[in-house]
Write a structure and sequence with these properties.
The complex is a heterodimer of chains A (899) and B (113). Chain A has 899 residues and is α+β, with helices and mostly antiparallel strands. Chain A contains 29 helices and 23 strands. In chain A, strands 4-5-10-7-9-8 form a 6-stranded mixed β-barrel. A 6-stranded mixed β-barrel of chain A has the order 15-16-21-18-20-19. In chain A, strands 1, 2, 3, 11 and 12 form a 5-stranded antiparallel sheet that branches. In chain A, helix 14 runs parallel beside helix 25. Chain B is an alpha+beta fold and 113 residues long. In chain B, 52% of the residues lie in helices and 13% in strands. In chain B, helix 1 crosses helix 2 and helix 2 crosses helix 3. The radius of gyration of chain B is 17 Å and the shape is elongated. The termini of chain B are far apart. The chains are: A alpha+beta (899), B alpha+beta (113). Chains A and B meet through helix 3 and helix 4 of A and helix 3 and strand 2 of B.
Amino acid sequence: MDANSRTKFEPWIMKVQKPTPPKLADWLLAWVCSEELLEEILGDLHEYFYDLTEISYWKRSLLYWFHVINFLRPFAIKRRKFQIPLINHQMFSNHLVLATRLLKKSKLFAFINILALSISMSVGILMILFLSDIYSFDDFQVHKDQIYRINTHRVQGTQGREVNLITSSYYIGSQLRTQVPGIERVLIMDADKLVADLKSTESAVAINGRYVSSSFFEVFSYKLLKGDSLNALSAPNGIVLTESISKKLFGDADPMGQTIIIEGKSDKKSRIVTGVVEDPPLNAHLQFEVLLSLHSLDQGIIEGETDGRNEPNATGDFYVYLLLAENTIKENVESAMVELIADHNASLEHPIRHTLQPMNTFVTSDIYYNEVGPRFPQQRVYIMMGLTLLILLSACFNYANLSLARALRRSKEVGIRKIAGANRFQIFYQFITEAVVIAFLAFVVALGLFFLMKPEFLNIQNLATQGQNIFSLDIDSIHIIYFLLFAIAIGVIAGFFPALLLSKFSAGNLFEDTNNTKLLAGNRLKRTLNILQFALSISLVMAATLVYKQYEFSLNFDLGYRTEDIVNIPINGDYIELLESEYSHLAEVRATAKSSMVIGIGGDGLSGGMIRSEGQEKPRPAFTGFVDKNFLEMQEFKLLAGKTFLDPLVDGGNTNYIVANEGLLKELALGTPQEAIGKTIFYNEKKVRILGVVKDFIDIGLTKKIFNSFVFVFPDGLEQYRSLAVKLRSNNLPRTIQKLDKIYQTLDPIHPFEFHFYDDQLANNYRQQKVIYKLISYLAIIAVGISILGMLGMAVLTTESRIKEISIRKVLGAGVANLMLLLSRGFLVLILLAGLIAIPTTLYLVNQMVLNEFLYKAEIGLIEIFSGFAIVLAIGVLTIGWQIRMAAIKNPVDLLRTN
Amino acid sequence: MGMKKQHIGELEELVLLIIILLGEEAYGLAIRKALQEHAHRTITIGAVHGTVNRLEKKGLLTSHMGGATDSRGGRRKRLFTLTTTGKKSLKNSRDLKVNLWMQIPELSLNLGS
């Protein structure tokens, strides 16, 4: 392959007769280097470049660049004029004094600017900490930049859609270990967690564990407190406990070498403690309570006993982490993987593809099947960054806008400075200093605002898709540098345009005519920015309303069954019947029902089965829910025909009958519900009779529909049941829950009592939308606030500068209403234009990014469409109207006399 | 400025020696090559220029613009020669070291081999 690519590129090399040094490097050098030295330096560099004949062009260029950059030394750099004032301490302190005087003199101006900047900067601070939380994830891993995870890309299902998996196969992991050089360690982890009860002689505890290969502690940097990092996980019967689990099981006693019994759903094993590890830090993507040696499974996997788990095809079964050697190139390993599964791929219609994912993208990855640990998709990071940037720019624009409007007044000051000998850069520098001073003051306020917002923000809900919260928003010493740079950047951006414009004027022009057209040069730009600022506010308000509407709609959606007053209790043992009978004695309990799943909350516990009618060959998939006889009645599923499992014929568990949904009748062409009753179909190749038909209902949630058919089965044993639903009639819920808890404790001392209000579980389904809605509403409030402050400032300045006009018009007989219309017309046009831009764009974006996930969408009405526009317009009219009115109702004689 | 004795560093000393060695052809890149060849020291072109620039400011070197070649894109070289001060400070530096060497008793220079 290598030889191929070389021949391919050769003609291209031949064509280039004489490769020249990179032009950009020369240009950069010419720009920074002092002129008298440039000739000899460039000469030497070129000679050097042409001397290098042995190596490839890009390597020569790289070396060339290196030497060019190396010339950025004090002796070679051009002395520029503007370097003098930057270093000049006196001038700087003079500017500082001027800036503070200015703040004192025009308090309104200072107040508006500092407030608007600080509000937006508090969002900026939040964003800085937010980003640093995300990108410092897994930072405790010593080998963070050498650790990769193998991802799998393959076409699954009948629709031909490619899915991306975080998992890969045992096969590829074990092959890489022996066949491919440049890989220091391979770590294989079973995708199935161990969920079991751990028992020592003294106590018992429920845990989540992972089966990992013995290289675990060489790849990852979790701290092993006791035991030997190389051997702790190599014995097949070894187990490593976290510190807190060890405490729970053994107290302060030494757990090393102790025997532990693991009691799973169906089996019992004993293990010997070979290590104690510190609890995983919160910013670790991989969380666990115990680690078990994968060796205990290895033998079975290799010999292929366990359902072909050693096949290259079993790509959903294992996580494979690689610790690459320092100079290994990721792409080489990827192409090696292509070779390793080439034989296998040859037999597949859609080949399997493996890629390496570097550890620093684990949190922000867009690949999400079989995910382990929390995730905050990259796209969402970009959206949040974009919105923050817009809000910051909006506040900077306010500053620029107000400063420009005041420029008329300060133009005389500039003129005098210029006559006194200030050059253009000094004036520019003075205005930038002013802006930076204001930005620093705003930053202090912003920091205060941030501390007010922080708990609120952290409380919103877990922002990650699953797992623990990623964000702590703690301030470290490194952040102080970021903050300083941030404040300076904001000052420079805000002050740049006014400084540029004001410093441009020549002294003569300034005195000649204060209405100099040059002063208004920024006018078109200003108006455009104004429109964009309003559009941002309108758009954010609108987006918040749209998402909220969908959220409300989803919560109130008729699911096809009732969930009010129902509490679901997960069951981990064989005591469900006892618990149910104890509960049903309570006066507060209206009804109870056992089931294998909770319906409508994202597919938790739903299992699948295959169905076909008598004439059909090919079975189709359907969801299965195992329920007891009370379930359908208690949740009030709408029965269209036939009976539920309460029918005496069924008699305590009978898998010969099923209750189907309408979708199943359509899928198997069984006619109307009435016609379908009593018909037989094959369910998992077993003949069953349709006992009843319920109306179609939401089985997973409003965002997903996987199968059309749903089958309810009333099993004859208890082992399918994983959840007990209890319908309450209580006024004193806390007391009732306490009672339920107490009874539960007597039956299950190991697992803590968990209970979920059904309605909360449903709401949790849409928590992502709730998070988005909340975040956008905060941003909307902030954006609107900033534009209000901007409008207020503009209104004050407009009326001030047009005060003579207003007075004269009034003397000539114009009414207050008349004047207000005249003065606010321009601004109304701006809001109208902003609305025209914002409304369609927002509709499109919100649809694309949020609403399209839903199969059932709320109808978008006029209220949602015009919400943002109306709010911005109303606030704008109030602010500006108030200011203009203040001016308009004053006695014109007083105003004119003072001039 | 008084006649302060010029202190020269180790690299500066090497560069001065090499400029003498190169004679008529002592310019930036040639100095770099000679350093590589005779002293097994690889330094960046920028560092060479920095050093000669500094030496010239100290008054140990003078320079003039000389011949251009094709490989330099027609650009001229800056050729360096030592000033009297330069030569003197080299000699001083050598004398100082020789002096010190002479004062070390033979026995304390036991390098173990």
